[in-house]
């Protein structure tokens, strides 16, 4: 293969199981995530050299359950720089799978540019029998190097599937088939070693996002409150006390609010705290459902899951506190 015209792909490593190691090849749980460096990940996949000219940067090496906004800000700033770098055609980010969908959605809203950005990870540590990381990395680099990936927003590649960051979500705590794109966002596949795109996402992202290119260094506090039997609003009070400017209420069914928590949420909205109704249910759409909630100015979260609704609300609150404008943002993104 002629190698000097290959696409130039930057791999930004942040840790996770893809960079994890265990004492034995058959130890698939209880290992340490984020122990291997980006050069080891690249070195484990010699086939990358046939697909792209890859170079690596280590931005962090953590278990992604410990993610903080600071790493999002660092990643977004670096991706924004790389969008303007003529020596880079696409970006792959290796990441722990636990919170990969959140980082992917944050970057989907905050990076300005149409070069492909692909997040990938693994469910088995790098030392495991049948480790899934090397193939995921190869597939992610192939996707980032594919001209059809341009302008598709931030992508997630896991287990041969290409998903939109807007929809990709982790649905299994241990299987290699750990992610699904619910309910619409499977954009393509990698099959027979080739990348196939079959769909596009309509919601605003990257170049059309009002939040893109701004290089945030802090965001308003937004808490997620998960309803349950006997929900009594105590966490709403706690969120307000902690200084929350927004609350995402992961309600039951179509964003239903327990009567024990309802008045606390209405009081919060009356104090200027944005309240988004989301749902504990993995599929479906939260719509306006109750005139009392509409009158209180609650925002319907649509089909964003609570963890992604939180990110959109954090960003939206940097622009407006007006419930009608916040609802418009939720409808468009
Ligand atoms: C992590 O999210 O960092 C650990 C779990 C994983 O990558 O699968």
Describe the structure.
With 333 residues, the protein is of the alpha/beta class. It is built from 10 helices and 14 strands. The chain has helices at residues 38-43, 48-51, 69-83, 100-110, 133-144, 234-241, 259-270, 291-296, 306-316, 323-332, and strands at 8-15, 53-62, 90-94, 117-120, 155-158, 161-164, 168-170, 179-181, 186-191, 194-197, 222-226, 246-251, 274-279, 299-300. The strands form 3 sheets. Strands 2-1-3-4-5-6-9-10 form an 8-stranded mixed sheet, sandwiched between helices. A hairpin with a 2-residue loop joins β9 and β10. The radius of gyration is 20 Å and the shape is globular. The mean pLDDT is 97. Succinic acid binds at residues 15-17, 33, 63-65, 96-98, 121, 123.
* Radius of gyration over all CA atoms, rounded: 20 Å
Mean pLDDT: 97
Number of H- or I-type helical stretches: 10
Derived structural class: alpha/beta
N→C terminal distance: 41 Å
Overall geometry comes to: globular
The largest pleated sheet is described as: 8 strands, mixed
Can you count the beta strands?
A: 14
What letter string, H or E per element, gives the SSE order?
EHHEHEHEHEEEEEEEHEHEHEHH
Produce the secondary structure layout.
Layout: E1 8-15, H1 38-43, H2 48-51, E2 53-62, H3 69-83, E3 90-94, H4 100-110, E4 117-120, H5 133-144, E5 155-158, E6 161-164, E7 168-170, E8 179-181, E9 186-191, E10 194-197, E11 222-226, H6 234-241, E12 246-251, H7 259-270, E13 274-279, H8 291-296, E14 299-300, H9 306-316, H10 323-332
Parallel strand pairs: 1-2, 1-3, 3-4, 4-5, 11-12, 12-13, 13-14
Antiparallel strand pairs: 5-6, 6-9, 7-8, 9-10
The structure holds succinic acid (SIN).
């Amino acid at each position: 293969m002629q190698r000097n015209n290959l696409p130039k792909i930057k791999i930004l490593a942040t840790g996770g199981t893809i960079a994890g190691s265990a004492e034995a090849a058959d130890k698939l749980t209880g290992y340490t995530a984020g122990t291997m460096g980006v050069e080891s990940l690249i070195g484990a996949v010699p086939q990358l050299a046939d697909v792209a000219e890859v170079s690596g940067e280590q931005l962090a090496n953590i278990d992604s359950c410990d993610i903080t906004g600071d790493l999002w800000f660092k990643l977004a700033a670096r991706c924004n720089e790389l969008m303007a770098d003529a020596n880079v055609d696409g970006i792959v980010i290796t990441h722990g799978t636990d919170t990969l969908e959140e980082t992917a959605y944050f970057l989907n809203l905050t990076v300005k540019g149409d070069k492909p950005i692909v997040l990938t990870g693994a469910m088995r540590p790098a030392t495991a029998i049948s480790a899934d990381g090397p193939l995921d990395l190869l597939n992610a680099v192939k996707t980032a190097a594919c001209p059809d990936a341009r302008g598709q927003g931030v992508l997630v590649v896991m287990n041969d599937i290409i998903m939109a960051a807007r929809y990709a979500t982790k649905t299994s705590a241990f299987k290699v088939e750990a992610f699904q794109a619910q309910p619409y966002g499977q954009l393509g596949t990698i099959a027979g070693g080739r990348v196939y795109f079959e769909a596009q996402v309509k919601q605003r992202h990257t170049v059309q996002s009002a939040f893109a290119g701004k290089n945030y260094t802090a965001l308003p506090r937004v808490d997620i409150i998960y309803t349950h039997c006997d929900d009594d609003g105590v966490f709403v009070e706690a969120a307000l006390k902690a200084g929350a400017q927004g609350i995402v209420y992961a309600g039951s069914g179509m964003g239903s609010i327990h009567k024990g928590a309802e008045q606390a949420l209405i009081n919060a909205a009356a104090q200027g705290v944005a309240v988004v109704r989301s749902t504990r249910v993995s599929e479906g759409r939260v719509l306006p459902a109750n005139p009392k909630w509409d009158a209180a100015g609650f925002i319907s979260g649509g089909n964003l899951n609570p963890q992604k609704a939180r990110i959109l609300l954090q960003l939206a609150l940097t622009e407006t506190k007006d419930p009608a404008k916040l609802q418009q943002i939720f409808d468009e993104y």
